[in-house]
C-alpha cells in the first residue's frame, strides 16, 4: 500500500533535532522473524507465553525454555536487517540525535548500523544465570547439559531477556524515559502497544510535547486511548503500512 506522508509531518521531521524511535516485533517481520501477536503466525498464537516466558516456566521446564530460545536465536542469526532497520540507521546521517528504544531481542538494529540502541527486553544472544544474573559468555558454557550451568555459581543459564513479571533493566529503562522526554519526534514502529511499561512511552512523549508518529499496518490502541483522555491528539500521526515501506519514505 502506498502511504503518502502529510506535508506538515515532513516539515516537522526536517526540523527535528532529536528523534527517538520505539520499535517492536513488527519492524523485524519483513526480515522473516515472527511477531508475537499476529493472528496466524504470531509466537503467542502458537505457543503459550506462560510456558515459555516467565520465571515459573523456566523453573518447571528449563530444558524446554532453553531449547525454544535456542531455535529463536538461530532464526535471528540467519535473518538480515530489512529496509526499515536500514532507514533508521541512515537517519543518523541527517538528524543530530537518533535513539532507538527497542523491545526486540534480535540485534537487527545494531546489525543495520544504528549506533544508539536501548534494548528494553534484553537480547537473545546474551545469557545470564538464573539464580544471580551473572552475565555469561554463551561460548564458554558447556553444552553437555541443557541448559548449561553458570561457571561462577552453578545455577542454570537462561537467555538474558525480560520475561513477564520481571523488571526491565533499570538503567536502560531510565535512559529510554530520558530519550522520550527530550525528543522532538517519537516514531512508534511495529508494536501492538499493549505490553507495559513500553506501551506507556508514547503517552509520556505526547505529554512532554513531542510529535508522535505511529507506523503500523494495523490500528493500535494508542490513538483510541489518547481520544479517551479527552485530548485532541493534534501531534499524533497514524501512518498505516509496513515499516519497510514507510520508513525509507520518511528518510528520503
Ligand atoms: C508491523 C509489520 C510491519 C506487523 N511493519 N508493523 C500494567 C498494566 C497491565 C499489565 C502490566 C502492567 N505492568 C506490567 C504488566 C505486566 C506485563 C504486561 O504488560 N502485560 C500485558 C500483556 C498486559 N508486563 C511485564 O510483565 C513487564 N514487567 C514489568 O512491568 O515489571 C514490573 C511489574 C512486574 C510484575 C507486576 C507488575 C509490574 C515485562 C514485559 C516483558 C515482555 N516480554 C516479551 C518477551 C521478551 C523475550 C522474548 O522475546 O521471548 O517481550 S513478551 C513480547 O511482547 C516481547 C515483546 O517485546 C513484547 C511486545 O510485543 P510487540 O513487539 O509489540 O509485538 P506484537 O506481536 O505484540 O505486535 C507486533 C505489531 O507489529 C503489531 O501491531 C502488527 O500490526 C505490527 N506489524 N508487521 C510494521 N511489516
UniProtKB/TrEMBL annotation:
Enzyme superclass (EC): transferase
Gene3D superfamilies documented for this protein: SIR2/SIRT2 'Small Domain, TPP-binding domain
Catalytic activity: N(6)-acetyl-L-lysyl-[protein] + NAD(+) + H2O = 2''-O-acetyl-ADP-D-ribose + nicotinamide + L-lysyl-[protein]; N(6)-succinyl-L-lysyl-[protein] + NAD(+) + H2O = 2''-O-succinyl-ADP-D-ribose + nicotinamide + L-lysyl-[protein]
Cofactor(s) named in the record: Zn(2+)
Binding residue positions for Zn(2+): 129, 150
EC code: 2.3.1.286
GO cellular component: cytoplasm
Domain notes: 2 residues (Tyr-69 and Arg-72) present in a large hydrophobic pocket are probably involved in substrate specificity. They are important for desuccinylation activity, but dispensable for deacetylation activity.
Protein name: NAD-dependent protein deacylase
Amino acid at each position: 500500500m502506498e502511504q503518502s506522508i502529510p506535508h506538515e509531518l515532513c516539515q516537522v521531521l526536517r526540523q527535528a533535532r532529536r528523534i527517538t524511535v520505539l520499535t517492536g516485533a513488527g519492524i523485524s517481520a519483513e526480515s522473516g522473524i515472527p511477531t508475537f501477536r499476529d493472528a496466524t503466525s504470531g509466537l503467542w498464537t502458537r505457543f503459550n507465553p506462560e510456558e515459555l516466558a516467565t520465571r515459573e516456566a523456566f523453573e518447571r521446564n528449563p530444558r524446554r525454555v532453553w531449547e525454544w530460545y535456542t531455535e529463536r536465536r538461530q532464526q535471528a542469526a540467519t535473518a538480515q536487517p530489512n529496509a526499515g532497520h536500514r532507514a533508521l540507521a541512515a537517519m543518523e546521517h541527517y538528524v543530530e540525535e537518533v535513539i532507538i528504544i527497542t523491545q526486540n531481542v534480535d540485534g537487527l538494529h545494531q546489525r543495520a548500523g544504528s549506533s544508539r540502541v536501548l534494548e528494553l527486553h534484553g537480547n537473545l544472544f546474551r545469557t545470564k544465570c538464573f539464580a544471580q544474573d551473572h552475565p555469561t559468555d554463551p561460548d564458554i558454557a558447556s553444552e553437555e547439559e541443557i541448559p548449561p550451568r553458570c561457571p561462577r555459581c552453578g545455577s542454570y543459564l537462561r537467555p538474558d531477556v525480560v520475561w513477564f513479571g520481571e523488571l526491565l533493566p533499570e538503567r536502560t529503562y531510565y535512559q529510554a524515559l530520558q530519550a522520550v522526554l527530550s525528543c522532538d519526534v517519537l516514531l512508534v514502529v511495529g508494536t501492538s502497544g499493549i505490553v507495559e511499561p513500553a506501551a506507556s512511552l508514547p503517552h509520556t512523549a505526547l505529554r512532554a510535547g513531542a510529535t508522535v508518529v505511529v507506523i503500523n499496518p494495523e490500528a493500535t490502541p494508542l490513538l483510541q486511548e489518547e481520544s479517551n483522555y479527552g485530548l485532541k491528539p493534534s501531534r499524533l500521526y497514524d501512518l498505516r503500512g509496513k515499516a519497510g515501506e514507510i520508513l525509507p519514505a520518511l528518510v528520503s
